[in-house]
Amino acid sequence: MAEALKNVITQSLECPVCLNTFTDPKILSCSHTYCKTCLDNILECHGNNQMLRCPVCRAETQVPNQDVSKLPANLALKSLIEDVKNQYHLCSICKSEDKPQAVVYCQDCGKYLCITCDNTHSLWQDFISHEILAMSEILSGKVSVRRYHKCRKHPKEDEECFCSDCRKFACFRCVVMEHTNEGHRVIEAAVYEISHTKSIEDLKSKADKKRSCFQKYVDFIDEQKERVSNVQKQCTDDINNAYEESVRQLTEKKDILIVEVKVRTEGVEKELDEMKKSAQEHITHLTNIADVVTNRTKIPFDMDALAAHDTLRQDLQEALKQEDPDYKQPMQSSKKGKSVTFKRKVGMDELNLGNIVNAVPKSIALPTSKDSINSMVSTPDGRMAVGYSTGGVEIFSADGQLQQTVLKHVGILGKGFLSDGRCVILASSNYIRLYTLEYTKLNVVFETLSDDEGGFATLTVDGDDQIYVSYWKAKKILVFSPAGGKAIREIPCNLNEALQITSYNEYLITSSCKAIRLIDKQDVLKYEFAKEGYLLYAAVSQWNTILIATLKHGAGLVSIDEYTNELKHVQNLVDDYKIEKPEKYWYSLQQYRSGEIALCTPDRLYIFD
């Protein structure tokens, strides 16, 4: 009976949120008690509002000046915790009335042992592997005792069951007496613990993905800020160069122009900072509430703890409903800054350096080193990788600068990137090869179809890191795992001449030059777009819409339009732009993360701002 009472008292000393013994316990107006640190975390999760909602009963308590330390302390509970910590533990095995003091605790037996019983216990073969804790470490707080939960009504019975409707644990006798009526769903406690742990892990995984989503958004905003800052620096440099060529009398005008550039660009940077701040606040909110809910190794047992964790899990689920960031907002803001340029006046007014004007976007046409461009894909760091069937990958920045050349001796038919940055290459003879971030070949073998079996092939990678290879002659798509080996499944393409494929959410976009088709991953056609007399090529935009390039090959004209996920027209982006007509009927379309659209012909790369 004394041991059962001790267990009840010990359970009552646990905070319902962190499930550990209370530290600096604070009382809310509803009389529920929590650790000060737990209340600080809960208050921060709700935006540091002065009203704090109790996780158990959801009653609100006003926090003076948002300072939890000013809430009243639970002095009686604090004193009881000290008494429990300081009390001596007696041996649970010895039968004499004058029991000796315990020196160790066996986690597996759930017993306190004196020196003599500990020596005997350690000699038994079955007990050798038991986990033994020294009392000195327990009392110092370095380790914690794993307690066995007993039924409060039947102290000799373990709480082996859990009622999903009552939200409480119970022993078998309590189940028979109180939980057999209609509506009571009783399961094993171990099954509930496994389900509870999996639910927490799923929530943590979703929180990590949402946090990663917003972190990418913040990184994107930083990129836009840097581009705007580069514009400001370039304009300032141009102004300074013109000033140095002019007389000292133009100092005042120079200063005015620099201020004008600063005013125009700082307004844009301020807009981007506000967007970044909002995104970072959401990241912080997700991090704090996810930590409170998921960073726990214990399962709540009593009703208060269950209510607290149910409330916090609901708060996290509400936070996960936040819409993913809209990249169009920072893009539109940055365009205002990127359009700022300095136009010098020459041969007109000698006392006027020039003016700050809005630049007109232009395309960039870059003749490449070979007439064999065969594929193009965005890199994880926001650049564009252009592959050549005769060998090599050239990587271009959004302003058209060639920054890197890799895999010079590998013929490139297609390529993609996994979520961890590894590069997937579809090489000559339809071999799939895997490379590290530094383009070092990995020893992973894929069992693909040969040229004779599959014919011309193309490749894409989806968001789950599955690799799709489309074979034109075999009329099918094989799906591979990054681990290599045989294809994990096959998608027939009887109605689709998939000369190019692109992963799009849960679908695939196939381009056959004559038609763009949106199919699911069982080859069921969802939507189709065709335009008589044009060559058609598709890509996924940075805003998760679909871009389609329509080419009049004979006239050397290209138009690029944006479409919804149902292939409904949204807007025209490029209209009948004149390109150098290539000999081969082969094009590739992609979009930079910063918004520029890239179009490849077999011998040129065009970049549209």
TrEMBL record:
It comes from the Eukaryota. Keywords: Metal-binding, Phosphoprotein, Zinc, Zinc-finger. SUPFAM superfamilies: B-box zinc-binding domain (SSF57845), Calcium-dependent phosphotriesterase (SSF63829), RING/U-box (SSF57850). InterPro entries: 6-blade_b-propeller_TolB-like, TRIM45/56/19-like, Znf-RING_euk, Znf_B-box, Znf_RING, Znf_RING/FYVE/PHD, Znf_RING_CS. Residues 15-58 form the RING-type domain. The keyword Zinc applies. One of its GO terms (cellular component) is nucleoplasm. Gene3D superfamilies: Classic Zinc Finger, TolB, C-terminal domain, Zinc/RING finger domain, C3HC4 (zinc finger). One of its GO terms (molecular function) is zinc ion binding. SMART domains: RING. Residues 93-135, 146-189 form the B box-type domain. Coiled coil: none annotated. It holds the Pfam family zf-RING_UBOX. This is Uncharacterized protein. It comes from Strongylocentrotus purpuratus (Purple sea urchin).
